[in-house]
Design a protein that fits this description.
Length: about 150
């Protein structure tokens, strides 16, 4: 699950994770779509993952979007959106895990083909119309709303 190249700091009782990800937007006629994935737990989320050593958040967000959506196109960075922090636990690990997640918005000029990165446990990758995305995203609906306002497609 973790790689030696990931930006993770291990303390006695806490593990600190630094991650980045983002929203990939596309406008088709008058409708705006966002690329979302379904994870191994069935949650609708954004592509995201750990920063690699010597990688900055913007680079990691772009890399994760390209990897987890299996796209060859290179999206254009629109804006930094937010940094969220949360804690979680892992089976067989008594330490607390704290994550910082940097979120960005990217765009592509047309709806490129998406395919889930199944080796990461992603079961679906889809373009979702904005209203449906707001109704179905599993976490941080407010951050998606903020991204929509900032990108203003």
């Amino acid at each position: 699950m973790f790689s030696a190249d990931d930006q993770i700091k291990f303390d006695t009782n806490i593990v600190y994770h630094i991650s980045a990800g983002g929203y990939l937007f596309c406008k088709k006629e008058s409708q705006v779509f966002v690329a979302l994935i379904k994870d191994h737990d069935g949650k609708i989320v954004i592509p995201k993952g750990h920063l690699k050593k010597d990688e900055i958040p913007e680079e990691a967000a772009l890399r994760e979007i390209k990897e987890e959506l299996n796209i060859t196109e290179t999206p254009t960075l629109s804006s930094y959106i937010d940094k969220i922090e949360y804690s979680f636990s892992m089976p067989d690990d008594k330490r607390e895990h704290k994550k910082q997640l940097y979120i960005y918005a990217f765009t592509v000029p047309s709806m490129c083909k998406l395919a889930p990165q199944t080796v990461e446990g992603i079961t679906e990758a889809n373009w979702v119309e904005i209203t449906d995305a707001l109704n179905n995203v599993s976490f941080n609906r407010d951050v998606l709303e903020k991204a929509i306002q900032i990108v203003n497609l």
